[in-house]
Design a protein that fits this description.
Layout lengths: L5 H11 L9 E6 L12 E5 L16 E7 L8 H8 L3 E12 L4 H9 L14 H9 L3 E9 L9 H12 L8 E8 L9 E7 L3 H10 L7 E7 L6 H11 L5 E5 L4 H9 L7 E4 L11 H9 L5 E5 L12 H18 L11 E4 L3 H9 L9 H10 L4 E5 L18 H16 L3
Parallel strand pairs: 1-2, 1-3, 3-4, 7-8, 7-10, 8-9, 11-13
Antiparallel strand pairs: 4-6, 5-6, 10-12, 11-12
Helix pairs in contact: 6-7, 10-13, 11-12
């Protein structure tokens, strides 16, 4: 009697789904000797035998994909460089490659299972340390984004197996002892591409800042637009925004009256009204120089990142730009964020963020599966990007003190809600989907 691999491979199929949205083209390349059953309407499947894996070009038909997933093949390859070089031809510029393989830490256990005839025999697996894989991958145009493992207890046992597995995965996540490894690469092979741009400006009690802000927003070669979302204000923010829309017609300004509360509400209300390929969030208080938007956009247009986060903590801050308690809170948040996404960001709460509109579905999917809402909006944007394997880079900004009005942000108001949000996110990042 052999070990049933149905649960193991179903968990595997679920796990890889976090890396693509319904708008992405996906190819799953599978070892034909594997027991995996691929029945997913969202992607194409290519089953090849081990002897063909180093001659992938015989299957190439000029079609390009946003994501290519390799299952049960990479660790059996005897020419990794050629394998990666060939597979790169199947991938769009800035597309991604997800290599899934058996964790070498389990090799001895698997050999025992095979000797006892509890598992089908397989060709001897190679073990290549992640750093060496990354060095080889770089030579073929790939860059490693992250690596994790999944599945410690891959059995069903009347439905209890999945529950037991999730507990093991969460408690032992730092040990990386899951049976299956997932290594995500980004294919960096794209010329600079000018992209259309949408700039969202949440504005509440910002009448005195808006004109200078709008004047300083750069002109772009590609089509651009400005979306000002006006919260309920004590001053004439809404009236001023409409006036600026008529005055600066070249800026292509649209004005929206916010129905919800808070900055996050303002941003999410207009996301689907954005026409640009790139979306920027820019605070109305001019604490970040609007001219730097050129650099933010350029990083993505050059193909260096999918998501760019501003950081105020590299250069010195102007006096009174950030309150002391907010500075302390920022340090605490960075510790929690690094723990969750396993990537160090220096300033997740900077209001300036740039991302691709095509990845909005991944953001919405993250929000739908969260029990607790993000009280600020910053974390949903960053966590959904990290969870789905987007490349995140930071851009250092000079943080200015506001000239008009007072800060309207309290980072500690929903402390318990935020703590719950972090704990749930930590769980989601470390267990099988």
């Amino acid at each position: 009697m052999k070990i049933n691999s149905k649960t193991f491979y179903q968990n595997h199929i679920n796990e890889i789904s976090r890396y693509y949205s319904i708008n992405d083209s996906v190819l799953h390349v599978v070892n034909s000797e594997s027991n995996i059953q691929v029945l997913d309407e969202f992607y194409d499947t290519l089953k090849i035998d081990i002897s063909s894996q180093n001659n992938l070009m015989e299957f190439y038909d000029d079609k390009k994909y946003d994501l290519v997933v390799i299952t049960d093949l990479f660790e059996l390859s005897d020419d990794i460089y050629l394998f990666l070089k060939d597979i790169s031809k199947f991938i769009n510029s800035n597309g991604k490659l997800l290599i899934t393989a058996i964790n070498p830490k389990w090799n001895n256990f698997i050999k025992v299972f095979e000797v006892l005839k509890l598992k089908n025999s397989t060709k001897k697996r190679n073990y290549i340390p992640p750093k060496k894989i990354n060095n080889i991958a770089k030579s073929t145009g790939f860059e490693m984004i992250h690596k994790n493992t999944r599945q410690i207890f891959p059995f069903s046992i009347f439905g209890l197996g999945s529950f037991i597995n999730k507990i093991f995965e969460f408690l032992l996540s730092l040990l990386n002892i899951g049976i299956k490894t997932y290594t995500l690469f980004r294919f960096e092979n794209s010329p600079k591409k000018e992209m259309s741009k949408s700039i969202i400006i949440p504005a509440k009690n910002e009448e005195g800042n808006l004109e200078e802000l709008v004047k300083r927003i750069p002109s772009f070669k590609c089509q651009s637009e400005v979306l000002i979302v006006c919260g309920k204000s004590k001053d004439k923010t809404l009236e001023k925004s409409h006036k600026l829309g008529k005055q600066f017609t070249e800026k292509n300004i649209s004005v929206f009256e916010q129905k919800s509360k808070g900055k996050a509400g303002a941003v999410y209300e207009v996301l689907n009204n954005c026409n640009g390929e790139l979306i920027a969030i820019l605070d109305a208080d001019i604490s970040v120089d609007p001219e730097t938007l050129n650099d933010f956009f350029e990083i993505i247009e050059n193909g260096y990142a999918d998501f760019v986060n501003g950081t105020r903590l590299i250069y010195g801050k102007e006096k009174n730009a950030m309150r002391f308690l907010n500075s302390i809170g920022n340090l605490f948040f960075q510790f929690l964020i690094s723990l969750v996404i396993k990537q160090k960001l220096t300033d997740s709460l900077c209001g300036t963020k740039i991302f691709k509109k095509e990845n909005l579905d991944l953001l919405y999917d993250w929000q739908k599966t969260n029990i607790v809402n993000d009280p600020f909006g910053d974390f949903d944007l960053i966590f959904s990007a990290a969870y789905s394997g987007q490349k995140i880079l930071e851009y250092p900004v000079h943080y200015r003190s506001r000239k008009y009005g007072s800060t309207q942000i309290s980072r500690f108001k929903d402390g318990w809600k935020l703590l719950s949000y972090f704990l749930i996110s930590l769980y989601k990042f470390n267990v099988s989907k």
